[in-house]
């Protein structure tokens, strides 16, 4: 694997809970509580998990949309989480974002030409007005929209077309990394596929790294290189796509994969229904955070927090089951492969 374009080391973001308007802090929401991963140049890493697990907070923390509580964010060898705003500004050009709702992401009072020209002007990338127009036209070509559409307003486009404009705007500063925060979840199924294919083509053409934040495992399986699974503010499993989908090494991942629709009629699948609700991030459980819902939990899970460690080449999981003999580990061997038989 090539040198990472992004490294996240023990990232934490705890939001204070305040009593009243002028009251003091009464506790914290442990939204992200010690997350580490890296993304290589040209790679797609998908960050998946249930709503509220902290995956979007990770994306916003990397973008410095708020200050982090602890940890480090390193972009191409330079630490950016503690950079002063003036120093950070040129680094911002190298990482861009595509949000979930394309309509609220676009200024309704700006034509598409101005929406795409703004980041080019902000970072001083165009030599003159002719160069600016050329760049805007090329961006429209890249996202497969007609060039004459630059004179239209955001409300004149469909949802899929608006998301293409958002992608074009993210490409305008010529970034190395794009964070896609649920970038296709608001779109129709057929449009989702088109946008995913567009992102893959752009990645190959431009060598982009993508952090793809999603809860849609069917989409993730189609487009990613590696997958990181989050649960209650922590990453519980990281693996190459094929390994993770064929043989998950964490009970939470196993349950998530069992819920993915099987495309082939008659294909075997064992659906795993988790008991209970996700615990509150204000007071996470002691030990393994998943033990309150885990079908395989034993005494150690309720006391000791498992570390994310390698179970096989490139495959990491935070689960005490892997310290037990293979005969006592329900995730060892071929069990994971039986969860989704069509892989």
From TrEMBL:
GO molecular function, one term: ATP binding
Keyword ATP-binding: yes
Subcellular location: Cell inner membrane
GO biological process, one term: transmembrane transport
ABC transporter domain: residues covered: 6-257
GO cellular component entries: plasma membrane
Cited CDD domains: ABC_NikE_OppD_transporters
Membrane topology label: Peripheral membrane protein
SUPFAM superfamilies hit by this protein: P-loop containing nucleoside triphosphate hydrolases
Broad class of where this protein is predominantly found: membrane
Pfam families: ABC_tran, oligo_HPY
Presence of the UniProt keyword Chloroplast in the record: no
Key words, A-Z: ATP-binding, Nucleotide-binding, Transport
Record-stated family: Belongs to the ABC transporter superfamily.
NCBIfam families referenced in this protein's UniProt entry, alphabetically: oligo_HPY (TIGR01727)
Protein name listed in UniProt: ATP-binding cassette domain-containing protein
Source organism: Neoroseomonas marina
């Amino acid at each position: 694997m090539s040198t990472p374009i992004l490294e996240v080391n023990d990232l934490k973001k705890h939001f204070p809970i305040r009593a009243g308007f002028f009251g003091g802090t009464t506790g914290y929401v442990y939204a992200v509580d010690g997350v580490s991963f890296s993304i290589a140049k040209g790679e797609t890493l998908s960050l998946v998990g249930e709503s509220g697990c902290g995956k979007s907070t990770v994306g916003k923390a990397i973008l410095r949309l708020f200050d982090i509580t602890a940890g480090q964010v390193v972009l191409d060898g330079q630490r950016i989480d503690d950079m002063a705003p003036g120093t950070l500004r040129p680094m911002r050009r190298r990482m861009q974002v595509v949000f979930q709702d394309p309509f609220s992401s676009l200024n309704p009072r700006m034509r598409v030409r101005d929406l795409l020209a703004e980041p080019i002007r902000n970072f001083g990338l165009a030599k003159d007005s002719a160069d600016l127009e050329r760049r805007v036209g090329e961006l429209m070509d890249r996202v497969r929209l007609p060039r004459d559409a630059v004179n239209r307003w955001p409300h004149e486009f469909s949802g899929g077309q608006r998301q293409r404009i958002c992608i074009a705007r993210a490409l305008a500063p010529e970034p190395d990394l794009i964070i896609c925060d649920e970038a296709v979840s608001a779109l129709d199924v057929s449009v989702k596929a088109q946008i995913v294919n567009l992102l893959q083509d752009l990645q190959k053409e431009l060598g982009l790294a993508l952090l793809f934040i999603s809860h849609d495992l069917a989409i993730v399986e189609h487009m990613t290189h590696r997958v990181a699974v989050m649960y209650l503010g922590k990453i519980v499993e990281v693996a190459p796509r094929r390994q993770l989908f064929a043989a998950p090494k964490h009970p939470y991942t196993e349950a998530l994969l069992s819920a993915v629709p099987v495309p082939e009629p008659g294909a075997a699948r064992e659906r795993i229904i988790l008991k209970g609700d996700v615990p509150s991030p204000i007071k996470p459980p002691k030990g393994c955070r998943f033990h309150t819902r885990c079908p395989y939990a034993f005494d150690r899970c309720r006391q000791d927090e498992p570390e994310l460690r390698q179970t096989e080449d490139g495959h990491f999981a935070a689960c005490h089951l892997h310290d037990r003999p293979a005969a006592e580990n329900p995730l060892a061997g071929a069990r994971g492969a039986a969860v989704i038989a069509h892989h």
